[in-house]
Structures are given as structure tokens and as C-alpha cells.
Design goal:
Blueprint (H helix, E strand, L loop, with lengths): L19 H6 E7 L7 E6 L3 E6 L5 H19 L4 H5 L9 E3 L4 E4 L12 H5 L1 H12 L1 E2 L9 E2 L4 E3 L6 E3 L23 E5 L32 H12 L13 H9 L5 E8 L2 E8 L3 H11 L11 E5 L10 H4 L1 E3 L2 E2 H5 L3 H14 L2 H23 L16 H13 L7 E5 L10 H13 L3 E5 L3 H5 L3 E6 L8 E6 L1 H5 L5 H8 L14 E5 L12 E3 L3 E5 L6 H18 L11 E3 L6 E5 L12 H4 L3 H9 L2 H6 L23 E4 L7 E4 L10 H4 L8 H5 L3 H7 L4 H12 L16 H14 L6 E6 L7 H16 L3 E5 L3 H6 L2 E6 L8 E6 L1 H6 L10
Parallel strand pairs: 3-17, 3-18, 5-16, 16-17, 22-28, 22-29, 24-27, 27-28
Antiparallel strand pairs: 1-2, 1-4, 6-14, 7-8, 8-9, 10-13, 11-12, 14-15, 18-19, 20-21, 20-23, 25-26, 29-30
Helix pairs in contact: 5-12, 11-12, 12-13, 13-14, 24-25, 25-26
Length: 844
């Protein structure tokens, strides 16, 4: 063996870039090159509120989330017991040094659980505390006699009147997700699914052959043996001598009943095609309702195709209260737990405050600790402006902004200090009146001894910051630099900062060509959710903004009522739910409508902007025509990362591979085989203008437009994405990663790229989400073009620049939840501004 080298004393430790004193006061990031960031150096003061702002796509999220938060998460995983194995796979963000970083918590806009069992009550932990409260001081009653039950033995309670035994109360008794606590009819969901016959017949003026029923579809020209359900339909028609060319509404009731509900025990003989050959069958006709019920019950898929024919009905056993008898009939001073979960947060707070006056001293002693915890958590929800929510509100129905504020309220109760919180546009979904609530909440986190970093475009939040970092100057490859950094006054006085000019002057594009409405569409008798039998007038051929405080009923009116009404009137689609309005008038001149909400574009990570707007087929065709591709025999399929002939075999064209963590979210890392390129090596050798297909997918829209100059079928669609403020998106970026606002604007660009009808109604939900004020100006120009072309725009929005630029405003309120649902004011922005009843008017 070789001799050991001598160990010398006095080995000098390497110099650290930041002194210990600076490390205590600053987070210092040097040489950051993550995504589009251009080797930037950033210092962020600890224990302060720092706002990172800049135009959309400039690199704000790359700095805050993809670098600072990602590195904090990586360092945390590094200290876990099996870190050595994981650390090899988890990538470090691209920077030289990051010092002074404390443990990081990210509270993002991303949609959370889509499980209906996840509610505001479970997310905040308030429901857990209420369960303990009911176990400690709740009085169980007999559900049959209505009298209190008494303890009979260690584990049972007995009713003195009917002698019925009931289980002893535990925390699980009040948990709808536990077998012992859930209603056994609906398994704790509170609803059952049944077939809605109205959803089967979608247009009774059509014949069965031409598609009167959505279930059977269009049958004209198709074999009557297509499947045994279609064979059954033709057999009934033949037996009853029915002409299937006649409109559904003119057919005999007996035939309609037979098609929908079957014919009892009567046996039919008919043929159907099975595995490519005709098979003869003798059986009773079960009817479409029975077939749908069976297929719905047997399906194991989350995306159950039969769901469109089903409607939710309250469970007949628990009446939608989710719980078993014992839990539903336990009271505290007359109130049951299901009643509390359906109260709005502000009413629940009043109930809690009243307990202090009416509880006995013994009850107070038993419940003191849990009552304090409940009060603290409800107070936090009020503090973040969510007074209108209920504990039973399910997570899938919350907007991104609401979900972020629910999570933020949970952090307020934390006793941890010295953390770095990173928030993503917490003002989204808040009316300007309530911005101060969010700002006070963020300051409270800071004042407890934490560092708070907020990615934000909101002026009020910026003016409240201790420090601002302005990233820019433009989006994508034209961004990624620090334009300005410093106090609010420093930013205002920096001539290079567009944000500074906005904070100083606060001027934005206002249209000079506002239109006065001449025609109207009237939706009478709206009663959905908190709407109080209102009959709003929607102006046609103008831009109309629907405003109001959070929870006032804007979405209930537009998405819960107007859209189903238009769908039934124009497309003859009957909703599975009960109608929430009486009549829709004045829609006759409308050719169609497009709903663009903030829901994700597809569920697959393989969906990308290039495929969504329809340019990727043209790009693949272009590459397949290149000389090298022709020589190698490549066709368009070889340039699809979804086809095995061209995709990387390791990651199957994803560019990344998944690492599954126990008890934690899955983590994705760059594929070691293709290095994120998605394709096999031979495919990447085919070049167009010196770039491979993988290079094109990595381009921003702003790069791709000049790259494909001279190819109108590609450039025209990309230019529309640029116009709606998406120039920074990459062609190959997964649409799953897009924010709600980005997804909505991508839908808008796709709609604009297609052939438009004469008079369309466009419906949007807070399209300014994630937009800097410069990009809002671009969006307003698009809106004005649509109106000038004769279309109608209905926009739910809290952004006052959009409201100010609209032709008409419908202001819903006056408050959220049960105190909302009324039309407070309607008129032009100037009229709303002068209306003393309108909260929105004060901010115009």
C-alpha cells in the first residue's frame, strides 16, 4: 500500500463570500442562471417583506420558486435519512452560491386536492378541533325519540324511552372519512348519483337517427347491430312500428318510456356486433337509464364517461350531512356539528363568541383549550378575507386565490419563526376593498420573525413592501435581469423601471371608444347558491365587467347560471342539475358562446402550448421534409414525442423521470438518457435553420415567431399568443404547469385563431391573473378588437383597470356569502363611480 500523506497543522479555511453578520441579515444569491435568469446576483433582507415584480414571464417565479424555494427543499431532503440515495437524483438549481437561506415554505396558486372529502374544515384543522369539542361537551340525543341518551356501559349509550343502544362518542364518530363516523348509505359523501333522463335527450326537435339523444348519438347510416344497446333500441322501434325519422318530441310516450326505462319482462330478439361478428340475443329491454347506471357503477376510471348523464341527489339517510346517527344528533346548546359546518365563517365566529356567555363553568373547564384553538383558527380565516366561506366548502370548488389564502391562514397559527415564506400573487381573487386584510396578514408573518417573499403585480402590496426587486426588462429571453432593487422610493425614482413609473404615475390605457349598450339579454329569477332571485340585464355587443367583493355571487351568476342557460338555449343541452333561473330572454341573435375559465388545460403533462393551439403538426411536417429526414425515412410521427418511433425510450418522450417519495409529493428530474430533449439521438440530428425539434420546443414564443418567419400557418397562431401576453411561454412547456390566468389566455388565443361566428359571447374569469400592468394594456386591446367586431364580452374581474375600461358594469354584493347575491349597481363605469351603494365604485 502507498504511504499515508502527512497531515499538516494550520490548514487555512477557505474564505466565505459573505460575512457571518451579513448572513444573519441577508439571503445572498450569486450567479443565478435558472431558466431565463442571466447570471444575476440578488440580496434579500431577512425579516422583511420583499416583493418580486416585473412583466409577465420576466423571471420572477424562476427566482422565487425555481431557485430559492427549490434549493430550500433540496437542502431539506439532503438532511433526511435516505438522503444519499435521493440526492444523486434531485437537481440543484443553476446558481453559484446561495447563503443565509432559512427553511422555506411555498404557498402557491396551484389547485390542490380534487377530492370532495377535502374541505375548508379539513384543510385548516378546524373540523378536527370541533370534533374534539363535541366529544368533550356535546350531548348525544336519540334520533328516534329526540331525548338525551345516558351512559349504559363503558362503550355504549342507551335511550331511556325506546331502549335503543348507541355507540359511545369518540372523535372518529364525528369523522365522515372514518368508517365508524360516516353515513353508511353514502359512505360519508352526503350525495348519491342517479341518472338524469333530461341529460339523455338533449334536443327533442331532432329524430333519434339524427342525434336527439346524447347517449345513442347519431345513428343515421350506422348498422343497427353496432352494439347490443343500439340493437335493443331498433328492436323496440320495430316491435312498436315506430318511424325513427320523426322528431323525438312527436314520438309516442310509450316508446320514449321503453327506450329510457325498458319494457319489463318482455323478451326481444335482436342482433349486435361482438368482436367483429354478429351475435343474436334474446333478452328483455333494460332501457338507457339502466345501462348508464350499470356502466357508471362498474367503471373504475376517475374520468367516468357516464358521469355526464348523472346528477347528484342528497343522501336520503343523512340528508347531505355525511355523518352517522350518533354524530348528527349530538348537540351543543341546540346546535349540531353539520349545522356549524354549513355556517359562513363570520356567523360561526359569532356563534363561538356567544358560547362564552352561555356555557356553564364545568363546560368551559372541559373545553377551554380546544375553544381557544378554534377561535384562533377562525380568526385567521377572517383575517385573510374568507369570512364568506363555510367549513363544508370542498377544496375542488375553491379558486387558486382562495386556496392560497386558506393555506396562509393555517400558517398564521404556526409558532415557528425564522422561516422564509414565498407567496404567489396572494391578492388574486380579492376585491380592492379587502387587499389590506391580505397585506396585514403578510406583515403579521413578517413581524413574528420570518422573511416573506411575495411574487406580485398588485400596486397596494408593492407600496407596503420593505424591499422591491424588479425583474425584466421584458419577458422570456429578453428578461432575466435585475432592472431595479431597493425601497419603494428607490424603485419610483429609477428611470429604468417600468414598475417604478406605474407606482409613481399609475396611468393605464383607457379606451376612448366606449360603447353604449343598445340590446340586452335578460336572465330572470336567478337563485343559485346565494343569489337572491335577481334578474340581471347583460348588454350585447359590448364589454361588460361583473364585479363585487369575494364571495358576493359573481361566479354563481355567470358560471353557475348564465352559462347553463346559454347552453340550453343555444345548444339544447339540458343540465343534470335543477335549473337555477326562470327564463333567458334576448339570446336569439347570439351564434354561440365560449367559456374561458381558469381550469387547467388537460390533465396530461404531455399537453403543451404548441399542440394545444395547433402549430406542432405544422412544425413536425416541416421537419419531416428536411433532406436528412427524407434520407433516413423519417415521417411526421418520428417528430412526435408521443410516438415510440422517435421518443426517448427511457422517459417515453417526457424529458423527465419521476421519483416517488413516501409521504411526500413525487419529484421529477431531467431524464439521464436524453438530457431533457425527449427524442432519440437520430431525430435530433435533423435540423431546420440550424435547430433541432427539441431546440424548437425549448424556444419562447417571442423567439419562435422570427424563427418561423415566412410560414404563416405557424407565425399567425404564435402571434396571437404574443398578443394575449404569453410571449414568454415555451412551445414545449407542459400546460399542467400553467397558472389559471395563463391557461385562460391560452384558451383565448386558440379561440381567436379559429374561424369566428358572427356574434359570439366570450366569458372570462379574472383574465388578468399573473399579468403586469403593461400586459393588461395588451389584453385590453384584444378585448376592444372583439367588441369592435360585434361580439359580446362578459368578464368577472377584481382588477379596476379592466373594470374602468369596460362599457358596462354589473356590481354584485353588497357583501360575501349570505350577505351578497344582490345587484348593488349597474351602469357605465362613470355611473358606478357616482353610485354611493357600490363598493366597487369607490375604487374606480
Amino acid at each position: 500500500m502507498e504511504p499515508k500523506f502527512p497531515v499538516l497543522q494550520g490548514w487555512e479555511k477557505p474564505n466565505v463570500a459573505v460575512s457571518a453578520q451579513e448572513e444573519d441579515a441577508l439571503i445572498c444569491l450569486k450567479g443565478c442562471r435558472q431558466n431565463n435568469l442571466k447570471n444575476i446576483d440578488v440580496t434579500i433582507p431577512k425579516g422583511k417583506l420583499t416583493v418580486i415584480t416585473g412583466v409577465s414571464g420576466s423571471g420572477k417565479s424562476s427566482l422565487a420558486f425555481d431557485t430559492i424555494y427549490a434549493e430550500g427543499k433540496r437542502r431539506y431532503l439532503d438532511n433526511m435519512s435516505n438522503a444519499a440515495k435521493m440526492q444523486e437524483q434531485i437537481e440543484k438549481p443553476d446558481f453559484d452560491t446561495l447563503q443565509g437561506l432559512t427553511p422555506t415554505i411555498a404557498i402557491e396558486q396551484k389547485k390542490g386536492s380534487q377530492n370532495p372529502r377535502s374541505t375548508v374544515g379539513t384543510l385548516t384543522g378546524i373540523l378536527d378541533q370541533l370534533r374534539m369539542l363535541y366529544v368533550s361537551i356535546g350531548i348525544p340525543h336519540c334520533p328516534y325519540c329526540g331525548i338525551p341518551v345516558h351512559k349504559d356501559s363503558k362503550n355504549k349509550n342507551r335511550c331511556g324511552a325506546c331502549n335503543t343502544l348507541f355507540q359511545r362518542l369518540t372523535v372518529s364518530t364525528f369523522n365522515a372519512n372514518a368508517h365508524v363516523g360516516a353515513c353508511h348509505t353514502c359512505n360519508g359523501l352526503g350525495i348519491l348519483y342517479e341518472v338524469n333522463p333530461d341529460s339523455i335527450v338533449v334536443n327533442d326537435s331532432l329524430s333519434v337517427l339524427d342525434g336527439a339523444t346524447a347517449y345513442f348519438g347519431k345513428l343515421r347510416g350506422k348498422k343497427p347491430t353496432g352494439n347490443w344497446m343500439v340493437g335493443e333500441l331498433f328492436a323496440i322501434a320495430k316491435d312498436m312500428n315506430i318511424n325513427l325519422d320523426e322528431p323525438w318530441k312527436d314520438l309516442p310516450d310509450g316508446f320514449k318510456q321503453a327506450v329510457l326505462y325498458g319494457t319489463g319482462d318482455k323478451i326481444y330478439n335482436f342482433k349486435y356486433n361482438s368482436g367483429g361478428r354478429d351475435t343474436e340475443i334474446n333478452r328483455p329491454a333494460a332501457g338507457a337509464v339502466s345501462h348508464i347506471q350499470r356502466l357508471f357503477r362498474e367503471s373504475k376510471s376517475d374520468d367516468n364517461a357516464q358521469r355526464q348523464y348523472m346528477r347528484e341527489v342528497p343522501c336520503p339517510t343523512c340528508n347531505g350531512e355525511l355523518l352517522c346517527h350518533e354524530a348528527r344528533y349530538t348537540t351543543i346548546l341546540g346546535y349540531r356539528l353539520p349545522e356549524l359546518t354549513k355556517m359562513s365563517i363570520d356567523v360561526l365566529w359569532d356563534w363561538l363568541c356567544s358560547l362564552e356567555e352561555v356555557l356553564s363553568q364545568e363546560q368551559k373547564n372541559k373545553a377551554a383549550q380546544v375553544l381557544g384553538e378554534i377561535e384562533s383558527r377562525i380568526s385567521n380565516l377572517l383575517q385573510v378575507g374568507l369570512s364568506y366561506l363555510t367549513l363544508s366548502r370542498t377544496a375542488p370548488t375553491l379558486s387558486g386565490g382562495e386556496l392560497q389564502r386558506v393555506r396562509l391562514s393555517s400558517q398564521l397559527g404556526s409558532e415557528l419563526i425564522g422561516l422564509t415564506y414565498i407567496l404567489d400573487e396572494p391578492s388574486i381573487g380579492l376585491h380592492p376593498r379587502d387587499h389590506h386584510l391580505m397585506i396585514d396578514t403578510i406583515k403579521h408573518l413578517r413581524d413574528k420573525g420570518n422573511t416573506v417573499i411575495v411574487v406580485e403585480h398588485d400596486k397596494e402590496t408593492m407600496l407596503s413592501a420593505d424591499y422591491i426587486i424588479d425583474v425584466g426588462p421584458s419577458a422570456g429571453t429578453h428578461g432575466g435581469e435585475i432592472v431595479a432593487a431597493g425601497s419603494v422610493e428607490d424603485i419610483k425614482n429609477n428611470s429604468k423601471s417600468a414598475t417604478g413609473r406605474f407606482l409613481k404615475e399609475c396611468t393605464i390605457y383607457e379606451p376612448s371608444n366606449q360603447k353604449t349598450p343598445r340590446e340586452w339579454m335578460i336572465l330572470r329569477g336567478c337563485v343559485g347558491n346565494n343569489l337572491k332571485n335577481i334578474s340581471p340585464r347583460f348588454p350585447l355587443h359590448v364589454m361588460c365587467c361583473i364585479t363585487g367583493v369575494s364571495g358576493s355571487g359573481k361566479s354563481s351568476l355567470v358560471f353557475g347560471t348564465l352559462i347553463p342557460a346559454l347552453d340550453e338555449a343555444l345548444n339544447h343541452h339540458r343540465t343534470a342539475e335543477a335549473k337555477r333561473y326562470q327564463t333567458l330572454e334576448g339570446y336569439e341573435k347570439i351564434d354561440g358562446f365560449v367559456q374561458m375559465d381558469q381550469s387547467p388545460i388537460g390533465k396530461s403533462s404531455r399537453s403543451i402550448p404548441a399542440t394545444y393551439i395547433g402549430v406542432f403538426d405544422h412544425i413536425r411536417s416541416l421537419y419531416a421534409k428536411q433532406p436528412k429526414a427524407v434520407a433516413k425515412g423519417y415521417n411526421e410521427s418520428h417528430f412526435s414525442f408521443n410516438a415510440k418511433v422517435g421518443q426517448c425510450p427511457v422517459c417515453e418522450g417526457q424529458g423527465q423521470v419521476k421519483i416517488a417519495f413516501q409521504y411526500m409529493a413525487d419529484h421529477y428530474v431531467t431524464c439521464p438518457e436524453c438530457k431533457g430533449k425527449r427524442y432519440q439521438e437520430g431525430i435530433l440530428e435533423v435540423l431546420y435553420n440550424g435547430k433541432s425539434i427539441a431546440d424548437v420546443l425549448a424556444m419562447d414564443i417571442s423567439e419562435a415567431i422570427p424563427f418561423f418567419a415566412g410560414i404563416p400557418e405557424i407565425v399567425d397562431k404564435l402571434s396571437l399568443m404574443d398578443e394575449v401576453g404569453l410571449s414568454y411561454l415555451k412551445l414545449g412547456q407542459s400546460t399542467v404547469t400553467l397558472s389559471g390566468g395563463e391557461a385562460q389566455r391560452l384558451k383565448l388565443s386558440k379561440e381567436l385563431s379559429g374561424k369566428q361566428k358572427k356574434h359570439m359571447v366570450y366569458i372570462l374569469d379574472e383574465p388578468t391573473t399573473g399579468l403586469h400592468f403593461q400586459d393588461i394594456e395588451k389584453l385590453l386591446l384584444i378585448f376592444r378588437k372583439l367588441v369592435d367586431a360585434g361580439h359580446s364580452l362578459y368578464i368577472i374581474e377584481h382588477n379596476m383597470d379592466i373594470a374602468r375600461a369596460s362599457d358596462w358594469i354589473i356590481d354584485i354584493g353588497p357583501e360575501g356569502g349570505s350577505s351578497g347575491g344582490e345587484i348593488v349597481a349597474e351602469g357605465s363605469p362613470q355611473e358606478i363611480r357616482r353610485n354611493p351603494a357600490s363598493v366597487t365604485g369607490r375604487f374606480l
